[in-house]
Each structure stands twice: as C-alpha cells, then as structure tokens.
Amino acid sequence: xxxxxxxxxxxxxxxxxxxxxxxxxxxxxxxxxxxxxxxxxxxxxxxxxxxxxxxxxxxxxxxxxxxxxxxxxxxxxxxxxxxxxxxxxxxxxxxxxxxxxxxxxxxxxxxxxxxxxxxxxxxxxxxxxxxxxxxxxxxxxxxxxxxxxxxxxxxxxxxxxxxxxxxxxxxxxxxxxxxxxxxxxxxxxxxxxxxxxxxxxxxxxxxxxxxxxxxxxxxxxxxxxxxxxxxxxxxxxxxxxxxxxxxxxxxxxxxxxxxxxxxxxxxxxxxxxxxxxxxxxxxxxxxxxxxxxxxxxxxxxxxxxxxxxxxxxxxxxxxxxxxxxxxxxxxxxxxxxxxxxxxxxxxxxxxxxxxxxxxxxxxxxxxxxxxxxxxxxxxxxxxxxxxxxxxxxxxxxxxxxxxxxxxxxxxxxxxxxxxxxxxxxxxxxxxxxxxxxxxxxxxxxxxxxxxxxxxxxxxxxxxxxxxxxxxxxxxxxxxxxxxxxx
Length: 486
Fold this sequence. Notes:
This protein is α+β, with helices and mostly antiparallel strands. It has helices at residues 25-35, 72-76, 110-116, 120-128, 166-178, 181-190, 193-203, 211-214, 231-240, 408-411; strands at residues 46-49, 66-67, 93-96, 100-101, 108-109, 132-137, 156-158, 253-257, 271-275, 278-282, 289-295, 308-315, 321-325, 332-338, 343-345, 356-358, 360-368, 377-382, 388-393, 399-405, 426-431, 437-444, 447-451, 463-469, 475-481.
C-alpha cells in the first residue's frame, strides 16, 4: 500500500524550530544554523510513531515537525503498529516502534522479525531506498549473545528495550533538520536520505574519530548504544554536506555463490536473503570452506564521480576470512570463509569490558567518491553453532568434518526456531586415504548405526528426514525409513 498523499507540511515561520524550553547544546546548535539560513529545519519532514504513543517524540519538541496520524479504520487493521512497511510513504519519513514480539514460540525484536520472515528483508530495503529510516530496540536479541542472523544498514537498532530508541529519534530528527535545502533536495531526489543518515550516525560515534576508524568494526555494530551518540557532530556534518559531495548507495550483486539452495540433513536453503545492500547466508552444509564473488557493479555516484571500494571484515576471525579484491578499484571481490565456532566479540566501546558471543561473519562494503564515504552495504554469514561440530586436518592438511552433535535441546544450546532445528543424535564421519567421505556412524539413544556415502543404513534401508515440533515448541529433525513408494 502506498500513502500517495501523505507528506510533511511546510514550515510555519511563526513557529520556533525547537521548543524554546530546550536548552541543550545540540538544539541550540540547530536553532543557530536555521536562523542563519544554513539549515532547512523541520519543514517537509514526516514523523511516524508505530507503537501508539508508547515511546513518542513530544509534539511540542519540534513545532514544525509533521506527525503522522492514523484513522480508526487503519488502526483496526493494525497498519499503525509494529514493524514499518505495510504502507510506503514516498516522502522523507523517520519513525520508531518501541515494541517487540515478546510471547509465542519465537519471541524476537522487530529487526529480527524483518530478517527472518519471508519478504521482510526486501521490504526493509524498499523503505531504506525510499527515504525512510526507522528505529527499533533490540529487546533481548543483543545481550550476552548477538542473536541476529545478519547485520544491515536498513534500520537503526538501539541497545535495550522500551524508550532506548528515544535518543536516536532526537538525533535523527536534528540531523535531518540540519541539512541545507539544496542538499536535502538532492538526497530526496536520489533516494539517499536513509543511507546518508546511517553514514553520519556511524561516522560520528564516540569511538570514531578518523576515516580509518570509520572503515573498521568500531563504527558498524549490529546494535547501537545511545552513549555513543555525538549529536552535535552529526548536526555539523549534515549542515556542511554539499549536494556535489553526497555519497552513493552501495548496491551489491552476487556473481558466484558457494551457498546452496538445499543443504544439511534437512535440505534447507542457505540463502536467508539477497537484497541490494545486504546479503545474508546461513551455513548449513558440512564443508569447512565456502566462497562467494560479489560485485558492486550496480553502484553509481549521484554526481558521476569515479568510485573506489573498501571491503572490510567487521565481525569474524581474520584468520578464517579472506577478502580478495579482483580489480584495482575494488569493484568486485572474492570472499573465502572457513567454519566459525561461536566467538567473543571485542567491545566496540573502549571503556566497556562486556564480551558478547556471536556466530556470524560480517563484511562491510564502502564506496569512496573522493570526498565522502558511503554507508556500508553488508554481506553476513551466520553459523549454526548450536550444533557441536568438530573439524580436523587430514594427512593432506585439509580440514574435514569429523563429527556433529545435533542434540542442541539435550545440551541446552539455544537456537532460532525459525531458522534451525535440533536432532537426537550425533554423526561421526570416516574418510578414505584419498580424503573422500567413506561413511558415518550415528549414535542415538545408546544405539549405533552405520551409513554409507549415499545415505543408506548398513541394513540397506534408506532414511528420510522430516521436521516436527518438540514438546517445547521448537523444531526437531526426525529420521525414519523412507517411504518405499518415494
């Protein structure tokens, strides 16, 4: 559904830019920029609250900001609540929903809903490329463990639960209002409002002082803490950005893909999603190493400048990830990744000693037009580390899978029920002297079965697999003799 006639109202010159009672340095900075004619202010900006006033900007804070209101008919269809996307507004819009799916078999944040439900990633990209930027709390998806299967620039995710989105809403509002009119017009025309806000947010975090810092893991976490915000710097960069210097939106294209449409015992797809600025894969196969070739060929600079590209490992073990640019400008690269067990992520904040566990590799792709770096596009690979896998080098030095313990439920290992499953057995693999798989032994409920490379049990029976629901509501894989009519 497209809200064709919904747009931010022009500024009323008789109203102040910011509530006069606000005296913090950032609001005073914006007031001065608008008064001097440098920044455009809030005219034409639309704000959408999607939690029915639970965590909402006060209407008196920015008197010229347009607040979107839903009528009862749309409210009755819940089009005003939760994850953005049911209605696309072809105007500049920012918003929030301080909500999450707290109950049911698969509780999760709104951002993880978007990443793990069909069509969610495509809709998130559509909004991102249509000048819309939304903020959501991570609500228990990013505490001791990072539960997200991907990282992306399509939304801002705040650390914590309700109301942790509020500082980001204020920061985004002030930054949008700080753009000069000609710059904001150029960004709107090119569909670059959201990518540019993401770049400005990340470029001005407390731990990001240089371009080198920006092109590193420090600037691109999955989730953002409000204590990293430097709103004055964000306002300053927005006010200084000229139309000829605006950065492009990095768009990716998969040239070669080592991930499969059917992999693992359950024959499930390894392609979580493929969108222009975020690609996500799930490692289900048994291989130790996988490769992809990714191109930025669809990316162009809005001002026709020549572009160069940086490919940066943002999360993962540098010893197990290799990025090989395939041309001088970095237009394409070969990515080689080895299996990762769960690992501790170094704190992004130098003053923090909190270690968070992750099971994901993230690679950021940045375009440089000679003046301004872009927001990242991202390639993410998540690993089913609820499975206990053991890889070991063979006589030729190549690592091969030795065993997999699938019984996550028995071990108490958490996993995302929308993406993964548990099974009540472990498999132990054997190889020939030439390094080829010769079969495996399955240990389940105290019993042992031998399997040949074609999946036949030693008694000649072919085994089939099906996903069922456990008593706890999580998917479990069950093995049974195959139907002879198959």
